[in-house]
Amino acid sequence: MHQKLISFSSCIECEIDLEFNMTHFYELNCSARTFAEGTEDNDFEGIVCPIEPRHRRAGRRVTDLHIDIVSKSIVDFSTTFIADVLITDKALNVLENAQLTGFIVKPVHIHKYRKGIDPAAVPKLWEFIVTGKGGHAHADSGIVVKSKCEACGRIRYSAYENGIIVDETTYDGSDFFTVTEYPKHILVNQRAKSVIEEHSLSNTQFIESSHLVWPEGVIKP
Ligand SMILES: [Zn+2]
Prior knowledge:
With 221 residues, the chain is of the alpha+beta class. It has one domain (25-211). Helices cover 13% and strands 29% of the residues. Zinc ion binds next to loops.
């Protein structure tokens, strides 16, 4: 006897409904254009492992961000080579006026301007630090702990296999946030994306976080 089964995924109305009700999260990528480089004045906390010399590494920066301006095309969002994020004063005003949450800003110290750049033409800049918390990525992202050192706290995570899926049970609701495993990926909700797009803040690209693909040519950890 054959029974005709209608599977959940073949129910088009259900899918549309699911898609409509789903909360969307995006990665805010601002690495396409850069105009600043960190200088040697940036000082970092040093972490030394008591049992494994190879775990020695730089921790948090303990100074404000010091930069050189290396291009005259200043964009509203940008990153340095080691993924510190910079925003213009105009961008900060937009984010503050919209009362977006999940970030703080710190002063930036400019040391040098590359030849030909007029310092007066460079707007006030801020370091943009995301403070919103997404907790751990959802297990469906496929990220697993590859190694963990109890002595120094060094944790290595695997690549994401299905994008970075936000676990809404641990997400704190901030407009800007990161997940524990990939803190350099700035994640935003629909509200933050809309504000940034409505004000055409430059050098911002949004990719649905669950559609992120591991970058080609980068070896998976
Ligand atoms: Zn260690």
